[in-house]
Amino acid sequence: MLIDTTYCIGCQYCVQACPYGARSFNESRGTVDKCNWCYHRITKGLNPACVEVCPTGTRIFGDRNDPESPVSLFIRNNHVQVLKPEMGNAPNVFYKGTDKEVV
Amino acid sequence: MEHVFDHVTPYIGYVYPNETDVPWSQLIVIYPYITGLVAGAFVISSLYHVFNIKSFAPVSRFALLTALCFMIFAPTPLLFHLGQPTRAFNAVITPHWTSAMAAFGYVAGFYLCLLLLETWFAFRADIVAMSKVKTGIMGKVYGVLTLGSDDVSPHALAIDHKFARILSMIGIPSAMGLHGYVGFVFGSLKTREWWSSDLMPVIFLLSAVASGVGLLIVLYVIVSKFRKTPIIDETMRGLLYVLFAGITIVMVIEALELLEIFYKAREGVDTVKALIAGPIWVGMAIQWIMSVFVLAVTSGLLIFEVHGKRLVNWLFLCGLAIMVGVLAMRWNVVIGGQELSKTMKGLLTFYPEVFGRESLFVVGVISVCPYITLWLVTKLLPPWADGKKAVV
Questions:
Q1: At what angle do helices B200-227 and B26-49 cross, to 10 degrees?
Q2: What is the pTM of this model?
């Protein structure tokens, strides 16, 4: 999900609507911000910075439309959960072995 | 960067990091409050224009102007709140159908046009008369306001009356829609337990009507005192009936809403209880004490068939009380909803800014503006019939 900072009016309705607390308001820009998976990197075929630098290799990033990509294989071969499934948002971030306390 | 930490909202328990910057401030408290006053004032105007309830005739045109003046300022809190206010109209011109925000532009814009049109039809005969009497700049102003239509024959006046009535009829669902929409904006946010309720539009709508009637009572009494004109007993009785009906229904629905939350007792209900006992207890106390006061006094006024000066004094107090009570209710809903963390395992305590773009000072200025505008507009278009029968 990308935010067009030339289009956002800064009403923060999306901040209210986000069940994961993923969005925040950028005071200097007057628009909303959220993680964009390092769009500038992934469009050049690189991994997002957090995936790249994670010292334990906890994070896997990839194309879910490609059934043979590492992330698709991981989702298929592991028991994974999403955060707040009852919200019906079908998020694309999956967790393995999530503690109930963080869901 | 340090300024980010200036307004970190204090919290207890577990909250998401971004929640410590409360997105919707006190400006969003007065936004539903002002639109609510519009809806209530318009209902009183319609009770005469559409339902022909004669006791509201003396205040019907004043109520219409009140609705118009408050409606003009309804979007201002939103403009002050937006991070990019200059793009506000983009939301209307290039709407996102998955966001409820664009709808505000359509609903509010339509309703404002409707109010302007109805006001013009309701006052056209007076404007024409003024344009012929007044000289100088004001004469020209009234001349322009006639929009070139200076026919005041009985036939033309009958057409005015008919149009004002039709517009008033369209205005009822529009006013309901406008305020129901405000309730929808909150009620449809499934992420917030305190907001996400199907009763939200109904609660907003009913409390809006009650607060608007309260406003009209207060203004009618004050204006009559200043103009040294008698306060018509029948009108006050009429306003009493509407206020009683409004407060009774709104209290029952609000109580049912709370009861449902507690009876369902979903995960996190303890945090909801802690919210009521903690960050918003003052607001809750004001809201319910004022509501009970208004219910008790209006019931008493009805049972003991109070008339005259005592009716005026007590109803005036009720009007003030309901306005304060509904303002507290808006605070409890808007701020309370954000003080309850989305984790349902933490609470925040919001402290409003005193000066700044989204501050109490700005809220004060915006709140006073509709009253000043109303005062100026009543100078331009005197809504009082003063002995003679109301024209429309």
A1: 70
A2: 0.92
For chain B, give the percent of residues with pLDDT over 90: 76
The complex's ipTM? Answer: 0.87
pLDDT beyond 70 at B390 = no
The residue of chain A with its CA nearest to that of B23 is A12
pLDDT at B215 over 70: yes
Per-residue pLDDT of A4-16, as tens digits, reads 999 999 999 999 9
Instruction: Summarize pLDDT for B360-387 with one digit per residue, the tens.
Output: 999 999 999 999 999 999 999 999 876 5
> How many CB pairs lie under 8 A apart between chains A and B?
74
- DSSP 3-state helix, strand, coil percentages of chain A (rounded to 5)? 25, 10, 65
The verdict on residue B389 lying in a domain is: no
- Cβ of residue A7 closer than 8 Å to a chain B Cβ: yes
A11, B82: Cβ pair inside 8 Å? yes
> Are B82 and A8 a contacting pair at CB < 8 A?
no
* CATH number of residue B135's parent domain: 1.20.1630.10
How close, in Å, is residue A12 to chain B by CA atoms?
Answer: 6
pLDDT at B392: 41
Q: Which residue has the tokens 């306003």?
A: B239
User: Which ranges of chain B does DSSP label H, i.e. alpha helix?
Assistant: 26-49, 57-73, 76-81, 90-93, 101-133, 136-145, 154-187, 200-227, 233-264, 269-277, 281-303, 308-339, 360-380
Q: How far is A68 from chain B (nearest CA, A)?
A: 33
- Give dist(CA B265, CA B247) in Å, integer: 27
Residues of A in Cβ contact (< 8 Å) with B91 = 9, 11
Total structural domains in chain B? 1
Q: Is the Cβ of A13 closer than 8 Å to some Cβ of chain B?
A: yes
B23/A15 touch (CB, cutoff 8 Å), yes or no? yes
**B385 found inside a domain:** no
Rounded distance between C-alpha atoms, residue B149 and residue B130, angstroms: 13
Residues of chain A with C-beta less than 8 angstroms from the C-beta of B4: 27
Contacts of B238 (CB under 8 A, 6+ apart): B47, B53, B55, B56
Checking if the pLDDT of B275 tops 90, the result is yes
CATH 3.30.70.20 fits A37-102, yes or no: yes
Which of A3, A12, A32 is most worth mutating to test chain B (most B CB atoms within 10 A of its CB)? A12
Q: Which of B19, B190, B267 to mutate to test the interface with A (most CBs of A within 10 A)?
A: B190
Q: Which domain holds residue B78?
A: 2-380
How close, in Å, is residue A45 to chain B by CA atoms? 30
In chain B, the residue whose alpha carbon lies closest to the alpha carbon of A30 is B83
pLDDT classification of B357: cutoffs 50, 70, 90: confident
Domain boundaries, chain A: 37-102
Q: What is the tens place of the pLDDT at every residue in B118-172? A: 999 999 999 999 998 888 888 889 989 989 888 888 999 999 999 999 999 999 9
